[in-house]
């Protein structure tokens, strides 16, 4: 049967904390063993250096790029970079014509492509579909044999958009060659055109090419996009990944009209599809299976978790009106370097040493509990930072290190609040085992409220600020969570265990819980004088309440009162009547008293 005493619960809590720490360390060990992670935290641009790319903007149709477009491009690139997990990147404009992107480390090709892509997102209805490669020349239909349109197109899905010239071009269109050309022309907005959908080697889906109608919903009408598992009406997962789209008000109206027209087409008809075109290439061409009236659509298909996440990210940050080419690229050194990193770590060690000195001076051996709690909090924070660097590419900047240093004092505050509450209960006369429980009941509310304020401030600062300040806010919030875990799962259980020891429970003068040090006398008296230890026996006892003494005298019996008077006459108090020695008051008077009592 499980031990339900405070000491038994404390042991189980400590085991849970040990299990959590071992699990995190094991996950990190697997990552290091497989080469996917590293033991040291990833460093940001100011501490490690990285790659600086100067991007030259190019507007569609050869138009001049405006300052508003450039500002929008900078903001969208920043969202893309942050969304991909590349933390602490610096994105600025240069000379009002270029964009400078500085990334920590060496960015991969996927990150480079994401930054360069214009992401001129468009939703176009599909009119017809064909093979990915060009039809061999000897098998192509002559232009004159294609039928002429019978009327003016009525909507984006009308086959009358296909002229003989467009049909002939469609047969000769070679998608592998077109997609490999980085200088391909922008697509016309109000005409039918040819687009290509690359194949997916991971899922085995072949490529395709389409003739699509004019743009009906621009990418700027997308309000949000995310991904997840498809669920049935009863909430059961189908183990199929999907991308969820949310349109703004104008986009919702346009998309409702499109789905009303596409949904009635038969299954297998290309006109049931609408193509999502990104930078001239089709990223997805799903069927319209229902009329979407609320502006919330779900795209399903042969998605994996990776492909659905990539598509959701492209859709979410896809409304970039211009594209970029990398004009120059160079490696940059750390702006602060190893010296500043070393000085920051030294500052942290000095702060930790000062906290240790204060803890031992104020709490004696109890200060070891404070230091052990700080060590546990440091281990959990370190594991979290390294694992976040592995999973989300989180990087530690100098501002983040500053947040860790500030957290040392904030974490120590929690232990001080707890210990002072225990002392308050000891002053009230409770034994240490009860003082720990009652003190914890009072302290945990204060600690929780304090950390909630710290966490709220960190969250607000993280979402409002940009750049290195976000690193400070993130580490501050992370340490607040670690502090709560340590106080609840380590500091309090350890105090429950120590309360049952003779050293602390007996109030040893070095335990920090000595009764003579629990009064109102201050630690520092001024003029270089500090509070001194005094044995319990020499501590002044409070005088008896005079009113209580008078009440006790009134309640004495006649015999007790006469005896009190006789004792006062011979110079003895009531408490000394049984312990008198030979000398004064032991002569004839005493004998006379006995005679009177016998009478």
Give the helices and strands, then pairings:
Elements: H1 6-33, H2 45-48, E1 50-59, H3 67-83, E2 90-94, E3 98-104, H4 109-116, E4 122-131, H5 164-172, H6 175-179, E5 193-197, E6 208-212, E7 217-218, E8 222-231, E9 237-247, H7 249-262, E10 274-278, E11 281-284, E12 296-300, H8 305-316, E13 322-332, H9 337-363, H10 367-392, H11 398-427, H12 432-464, H13 468-498, H14 502-505, E14 524-526, E15 529-530, H15 546-554, H16 558-569, H17 588-598
Antiparallel strand pairs: 1-3, 1-13, 2-3, 4-6, 4-7, 4-10, 5-6, 8-9, 9-12, 10-11, 14-15
Helix pairs in contact: 1-10, 1-13, 9-10, 9-11, 10-11, 10-13, 11-12, 11-13, 12-13
Short note summarizing the structure:
The protein is of the alpha+beta class.
Give the key terms:
single chain; four-stranded antiparallel β-sheet; alpha+beta; 599 residues; disordered C terminus; 15 strands; elongated; 17 helices; six-stranded antiparallel β-sheet
Please count the helical segments: 17
| Net shape | elongated
Rg result? 40 Å
Q: What is the average of the pLDDT values?
A: 79
> How would you characterize the largest beta sheet?
6 strands, antiparallel
N-to-C span: 69 Å
Structural class: alpha+beta
Proportion in helices: 40-55%
Low-confidence stretches: 533-544, 572-599
Number of β-strand runs: 15
Beta fraction:
15-25%
């Amino acid at each position: 049967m499980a031990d339900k005493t405070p000491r038994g619960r404390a042991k189980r809590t400590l085991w849970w904390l040990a299990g959590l720490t071992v699990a995190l360390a094991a996950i990190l060990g697997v990552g290091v063993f497989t080469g996917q992670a590293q033991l040291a935290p990833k460093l940001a641009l100011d501490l490690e250096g990285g790659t600086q790319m100067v991007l030259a903007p190019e507007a569609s149709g050869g138009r001049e790029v405006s300052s508003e477009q450039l500002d929008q491009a900078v903001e969208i690139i920043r969202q893309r970079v942050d969304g991909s997990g590349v933390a602490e990147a610096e994105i600025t404009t240069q000379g009002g014509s270029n964009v400078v992107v500085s990334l920590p480390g060496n960015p991969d090709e996927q990150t480079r492509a994401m930054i360069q892509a214009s992401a001129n997102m468009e939703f176009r209805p599909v009119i017809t579909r064909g093979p990915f490669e060009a039809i061999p020349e000897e098998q192509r239909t002559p232009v004159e044999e294609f039928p002429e349109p019978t009327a003016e197109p009525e909507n984006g899905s009308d086959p009358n958009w296909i002229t003989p010239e467009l049909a002939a071009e469609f047969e000769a269109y070679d998608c592998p060659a077109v997609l490999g050309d980085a200088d391909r022309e922008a697509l016309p907005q109000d005409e039918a055109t040819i687009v290509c959908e690359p194949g997916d080697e991971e899922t085995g889906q072949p490529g395709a090419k389409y003739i699509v109608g004019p743009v009906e919903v621009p990418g700027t009408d997308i309000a949000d996009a995310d991904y997840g598992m498809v669920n049935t009406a009863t909430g059961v997962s189908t183990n199929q990944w999907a991308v969820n789209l949310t349109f703004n008000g104008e986009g919702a109206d346009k998309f409702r009209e499109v789905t009303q027209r596409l949904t009635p087409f038969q299954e297998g008809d290309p006109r049931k599809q609408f193509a999502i075109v990104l930078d001239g290439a089709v990223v997805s061409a799903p069927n319209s299976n229902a009329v979407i009236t609320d502006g919330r659509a779900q795209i399903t298909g042969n998605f994996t978790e990776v492909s659905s996440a990539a598509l959701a990210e492209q859709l979410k940050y896809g409304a970039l009106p211009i594209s970029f080419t990398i004009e120059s690229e160079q490696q940059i050194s750390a702006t602060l370097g190893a010296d500043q990193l070393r000085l920051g770590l030294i500052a942290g060690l000095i702060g930790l040493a000062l906290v240790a000195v204060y803890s031992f001076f104020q709490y004696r051996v109890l200060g070891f509990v404070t230091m052990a709690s700080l060590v546990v909090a440091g281990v959990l924070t370190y594991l979290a930072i390294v694992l976040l660097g592995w999973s989300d590419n989180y990087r530690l900047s100098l501002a983040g290190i500053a947040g860790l240093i500030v957290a040392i004092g904030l974490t120590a505050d929690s232990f001080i609040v707890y210990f002072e509450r225990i002392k308050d209960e000891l002053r009230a006369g409770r034994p240490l085992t009860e003082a720990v429980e009652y003190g914890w009941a009072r302290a945990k509310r204060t600690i929780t409220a304090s950390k909630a304020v710290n966490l709220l401030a960190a969250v607000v600062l993280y979402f409002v600020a940009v750049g290195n300040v976000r690193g400070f806010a993130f580490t501050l919030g992370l340490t607040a969570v670690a502090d709560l875990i340590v106080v609840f799962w380590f500091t309090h259980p350890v105090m429950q265990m120590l309360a049952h020891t003779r050293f602390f429970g007996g109030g040893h003068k070095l335990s920090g819980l000595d009764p003579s040090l629990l009064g109102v006398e201050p630690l520092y008296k001024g003029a270089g004088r500090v509070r001194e230890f005094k044995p319990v026996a020499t501590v002044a006892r409070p005088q008896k309440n005079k009113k209580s003494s008078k009440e006790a005298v009134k309640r004495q019996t006649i015999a007790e009162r006469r005896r009190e008077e006789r004792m006062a006459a011979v110079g003895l108090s009531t408490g000394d009547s049984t312990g008198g020695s030979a000398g004064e008051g032991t002569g004839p008077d005493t004998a006379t008293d006995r005679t009177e009592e016998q009478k």
